[in-house]
């Protein structure tokens, strides 16, 4: 799983879908810090930094821009190196425009 091998003092940015006690405990047991906004129906509200959360939003918007390219969204390439090359090309075109 992605959250199994976290380095100590890592800040984990996630959206409200990951706001559960089990995920928060898993992150904190490894010495990392969760920065997850609380769900609206949660009784206990956790500490949350909006400034750090903006960085997660920027990364998510970049992935959405990359998915506009059909070749990347459907993963036409069979080899990982070709797929990575297509991502590099799409990212360069997206950044340039």
Structure report:
Helix content is 48%, strand content 6%. The chain is built from four helices and two strands. It has a two-stranded parallel ribbon with strand order 1-2. α1 links the parallel β1 (11-13) and β2 (33-35). The termini are far apart.
What key attributes describe this structure?
97 residues; elongated; 2 strands; mainly alpha; 48% helix; two-stranded parallel ribbon
End-to-end gap: 35 Å
Number of helices in the DSSP assignment: 4
- Quick check: average pLDDT? 86
- How would you classify the helix and strand content by structural class? mainly alpha
Strands, total number: 2
- H and E string: EHEHHH
Radius of gyration: 17 Å
Question: What is this entry, summarized?
Answer:
It is built from 4 helices and 2 strands.
List the helices and strands and how they pair.
Blueprint: E1 11-13, H1 21-29, E2 33-35, H2 50-66, H3 70-73, H4 80-96
Parallel strand pairs: 1-2
């Amino acid at each position: 799983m992605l959250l199994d091998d976290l380095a100590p003092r890592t800040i984990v940015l996630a959206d409200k879908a990951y706001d559960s006690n089990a995920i928060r405990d898993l992150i904190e047991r490894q010495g990392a810090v969760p920065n997850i906004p609380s769900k609206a129906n949660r009784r206990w509200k956790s500490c949350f930094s909006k400034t750090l959360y903006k960085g997660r939003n920027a990364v998510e918007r970049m992935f959405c821009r990359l998915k506009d390219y059909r070749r990347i969204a459907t993963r036409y390439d069979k080899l990982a190196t070709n797929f990575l090359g297509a991502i590099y090309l799409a990212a360069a075109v997206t950044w340039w425009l």
